[in-house]
Each structure stands twice: as structure tokens, then as C-alpha cells.
Amino acid sequence: MIESRYLMAKISAGQKQRQSSFGFLMQVIARRIDATMKEELAKIDVDVKLFANLMVLSDRDGITQKELGHLLEFPDYFTSRNVDALIDAGLAERRPDPNSRRSVLVFLTDKGRKKATELPRVIQKVNSQFLEPLKSSEKKAIIQLLHKVGGIPEGGDPNL
Amino acid sequence: MIESRYLMAKISAGQKQRQSSFGFLMQVIARRIDATMKEELAKIDVDVKLFANLMVLSDRDGITQKELGHLLEFPDYFTSRNVDALIDAGLAERRPDPNSRRSVLVFLTDKGRKKATELPRVIQKVNSQFLEPLKSSEKKAIIQLLHKVGGIPEGGDPNL
DNA sequence: CAAGTTTAATTGCGTTTGCAACTGATTTCA
DNA sequence: TGAAATCAGTTGCAAACGCAATTAAACTTG
């Protein structure tokens, strides 16, 4: 962020307000999580830029680029280049969509599927590292509140 | 962020886990906040990239570039270019540091100071927009929890 | 069914980023 | 003191980004 991770809202007016700004807190913590993920993923030789794509594909192999991008809220051009990069890294391949000649299906290669199996461990590790200061009930609470803020339906394992 | 804001943790394993990943939620919401800030700041003709710098300078005018970068956790080269951009926009100026010929002090111009006064309103607006789905008690709770996660001491006005 | 519209995906190109190298000033300390 | 190390700041350059335009396919509708 710069790595626009660097970014924005680290701020507001005085010291006090700055520290309590929701946007400020979100940005700062998100950047830190991103940096930590980058480090952890480097250990297993995965580019953080491709990580998200790998995770989605491991769950839903053979979707179109459009769908992949949609699930990640990425613009099309970005998805297009991400898939290029996945292919360059030997992690995925494009195949024609039997249902439409203008869309493309993306599949993980064996190598890609193998890499993908290593990812949940990393996510789990980083998430619990960041949530460590919270009590168990607070962990549940913050995830619930974030879901509410994001308008994202809940469900699933809060440990991840 | 993509604007390495686009990035990372949108993820985990299955659909269920993905939706609950703390890192995933943080990244997605942080990116949305960033995009919204960008839009809102465009309305008052402020580049989101310079926004953070403006806020810090409005609070602590006349600091060195080094200090400015440190407060924002930005690398030196980035601060250097940000100050260039602030100057190009007529919002700030460099002055020699009387205490050291190798460092530089950064001051807001009148125009810069004037712009800075418009920023808290925008921050306020975007924050409350994102927190809108929450009840008042929940707003307090999420900010408190984020402080705890970030290891950032609390204090200040939760509306900002 | 043909013209117009929308859609998935890609790409050209100017801008921004990140790293490393560089300059000049200051400190260290043998 | 003066050679080496450190420090603030800048910059060259390759890579990555982001937008807008493009291509080719698939709807829509009169």
C-alpha cells in the first residue's frame, strides 16, 4: 500500500481525533496485516499479489476471469494481468469456456493446487497473531461487527 | 492499493471461512474506505495521496521531511516526492532548517492551511457513512476493539 | 435478422511506485 | 584532524498501475 498500503487516512485533526478515526485505524491495521502477509508468503515463495487469486481458485476452480475478479472486487484489467502472472508462475492455466467464446475459464495446475494447500495455515497464523490481544469473546465480536460494516453475510469459522 | 490496496487477504479456504477471515474483512473494508475517501477528496480538489501529509502538517507545521515521513510510516523517497507534489499544488513550501543544512523544513502555505481546514469534515463524513450500519454502542465497541488490535492507545472523539 | 448495445477480456500508454545508487552534510573516533 | 560511517534528502530506472480504448463475442429489439 503506498503499496498504497501506505495511504490515506492516517489522520484527522489533532492527535486525539486521529487515533480514534475509524478510517485511520482500518487503514493502519490493514497495511500492517498486508505487510505481515507479504513476509509470511515470501517464506513459501508466494507473491502476495497472487495470493488472493490462488485462494479463490482453490475453492472454486474453473471459474471465469470475470467471476474471479468479481469475488475479489478487482477490476477486469487487474484480473487479466493477475492470471497472466499466475500462468507465468506455472500456478494456473486458461481454458476456453464451453459456454461462451468470449469468456475464459481459469484452472489451477497441480503446482497451483499444491501451493494453495499451504495458504490456509499462513492465513490462520497471521489472523490469530493480529487478534491475539483480544479475548475470545472480543474476537467473535470484532468479526461480527466487521461483517456488519461491510454488509457481508456472516457464517464460517472465526479462527480463520 | 492495486493500489496494493487491492491485495491480499481476501481469503482463506472455503466460502465460509473466507467470509470470516479477519484479514480478509480488514482488507476489503479498508479498500472501500480508501476509494470513498478518494471520491470525497476529489470533490474538494485534494489528492488522496497528499491528504495524509496535509493532515499531519496542519497539526505540526514546520517539521522536517524526515519527521513527516516518520509520522506517516512512509519511506523517505516517498515523502520527498509527496512534498514535491504538495509544492506543485501550491499547498506547501520547503525552507532551510536553521539547525542543519542537510535537512529541510516543510510548511503549509496559506492555501495549504485553508485546504487542511476542510479535511476533518470529509473524514467525519466518510467515517460515519461506513459506521452507519452499527448501533451507537457497536460503533464505540468496534473502535475500541480496533485500538486494542492495533496496540494504539485510545482517546479522542469516536465520531472522527 | 441486422443494427445497436452490452459483455469479457486484453492492451497501449502515461503515471506512479520501489529500489538502489547517489549527493552533500554531519558525526564518530582513532 | 581527517578518514570512515551515518544521515537527510533526491533521483534514475525498471516494474507495476490505472485508465481509456480496443477487440471479439453475445445479447436485444424493432
CATH superfamily of chain A: Winged helix-like DNA-binding domain superfamily/Winged helix DNA-binding domain
Q: What is the structural class of chain A?
A: mainly alpha
User: What kind of sheet is the major sheet of chain A?
Assistant: 3 strands, antiparallel
* Oligomeric status: homodimer
Question: Mean pLDDT across all residues of chain A, rounded?
Answer: 86
CATH-assigned fold name of chain A: Arc Repressor Mutant, subunit A
| Helix coverage percent of chain A | 55-70%
What is the tally of beta strands of chain A?
A: 3
Query: How big a fraction of the residues of chain A is strand?
Result: 5-15%
Strand arrangement within the widest β-sheet of chain A reads 1-3-2
Count of discrete alpha- or pi-helical segments spanning 4 or more residues of chain A? 7
Q: From the 3D coordinates, which CATH architecture of chain A would you assign?
A: Orthogonal Bundle
What is the general shape of chain A?
globular
Number of domains of chain A: 1
| H and E string of chain A | HHHEHHEEHH
CATH class of chain A: Mainly Alpha
End-to-end C-alpha gap of chain A: 23 Å
- Rg of chain A, Cα atoms, Å: 18 Å
Largest interface, C-beta within 8 A: A-B, 79 and 76 residues
- Low-confidence runs of chain A (pLDDT<50, min 5 residues)? 1-17, 156-160
